[in-house]
Give the backbone structure.
Amino acid sequence: MDYKALAQLLFPDVTATAEELESRFPKRNLPEGACVTRIGPSPTGFVHLGNLYNAIIAERIAHQSNGVFYLRIEDTDNKREVDGAVETLINAMNYFGVQFDEGAVADGDNGNYGPYRQRQRKEIYHVFAKQLVERELAYPCFLTAEEIDAIREQQTANKENPGIYGKYAQKSRSLTLDEIKDNIAQGKEWVLRYAGTETDEYINVEDAIRGKLSMPRNNMDFVLLKSDGIPTYHFAHVVDDHLMRSTHVIRGEEWISSLPMHYELFSTFGWETPIYCHTATLMKIEGTGKRKLSKRKDPELALSYYQQEGISPDAIWEFLLTLLNSNFEEWRIANPEKSYLEFPYTLEKMNISGALVDLNKLRDISKDVIGAMPAQKIFDSWLDWCKQYNEQFASLIEQYPERTLAALNVGRTAKKPRKDIETWKQACDFMSFYYDETFKVFDEMPQECDEETVKTFFTKYLASYNHEDDSNAWFEKVRAITEEMGFALRPKDYKNNPEQYKGSIVHTTNMLRIALTGHANAPDIWEVSHVLGEDIVRGRIVKYC
RNA sequence: GGCCCGUUGGUCAAGUGGUCAAGACGGCGCCCUUUCACGGCGCAAUCAUGGGUUCGACUCCCGUACGGGUCACCA
């Protein structure tokens, strides 16, 4: 067989050579130790937590080493592609604060190693495919889906490994040049297969996260090019990461089993393999066990979920970082003021078993993150979120900016600031009492206070109320009314001698809280009153008189 | 089924032959307190399992169980 002729027959349009491509995409000129990483998502329209998880690792590795982090769109499967998915993806990454140095952008490419969409790299893959054919390491295969199914059935029956390899590849591999010409002339579809070798060798690959991985060497005649001429993931990954000069490949552990194919390709091309970093799959608890997060059952898998809930990107980063690097939490405690970007991230500290996504923990982290933000930042971020997800609050915030800002600072000026806000969505509930438009009374007046007591209390309160009073003066008045009405000034006194009192100061102050905020559990009454302003305070109290 | 990866409290986990087996979230209790939060203190709770190796094993080796991944012209 004349393989040069075969290569020419299969790839008549290829004129470029591998050498030309090598010089068109030269080794990057980067400082010693700089890492080049990427994420390679498929544009399916669904961006999930795992995408972000891997993106954060790749971003950290690159930027901590003054390297390059880029975005490559792996769109080789046109069946799965969804319109606008690339933009969705870029927006999501942007929202969560992942910055790319180069790669695909909404309307094209940014960088010298493109194109960054695999479908647009067809000619590049063909150069290497042609070379493989010339070297007798790839061949066209005309097997139909039915024939392949039949082979698989036979293999299953014989308890053999499924796939096209060894004797099962013989039929396609022994086609003559004329037969191939005929088939093509007849319009038969073909795929390009790698010519694997039968072997019982093992390969050893050093994974930066997992250490040594040992696997049987590839013996499969796996598909390089699909019948539309577009490469499979395996071929595209090897060509792209070589030509784009990636130093580290960060991807999910589901790829470990195809590592032998990738290793095989890197070896036959004589290219240096990148450092593989296979990350653990995110899990979820269900019943008594763990299971993989599922797109169908778990809304929290979608990144859009966190956007809709209004969980700040900072909180997501902190949360993911705690999952990613076991020493992050300790570092955070030791360095409460620093940005998480200053945390020295290392692959060695990564956990190799699947982490459970614990929404409780996320909420806790979120509370801390928001608690540490200056009020103005909370104001801005919350407003941004509301503009997209809660119009009513967006307009309230814009209508009462000063009150809102003051409200966000309630109880936060002390050394031990309150942490009332977990998410922007929840902030709308929590903050609703600050606006008459959304104010609602949720809690009942305390049992200890009948209608008459409530009325008397508020009447006295209003009569003595002076908005100019400072916190101490104000509280003295409350105490005076409390005592006057037969309520204990110290909760313990009432607890110990319930028959001597109508209740305690807990109950009188709770009446105030309920009248002013709608809840028995609320921030400091005096502070709240001064955020609301005298008119609103009097207005809410007078209703009970 | 073959191949591969994994398994420390409810969860995230530190730990690399000698530790009373860190810490965080959650739970519970106490303290602080005009409520709630915040904060402080404390408690309960873990090395999947069976064999080795060793003076000594969470740590090293082998088996078992369990969980996960993969076996496409999907990534």
The CA atoms of residues 311 and 423 of chain A lie 5 Å apart. The longest strand of chain A covers residues 202-207. Chain A has 24 helices and 15 strands. The radius of gyration of chain A is 33 Å.
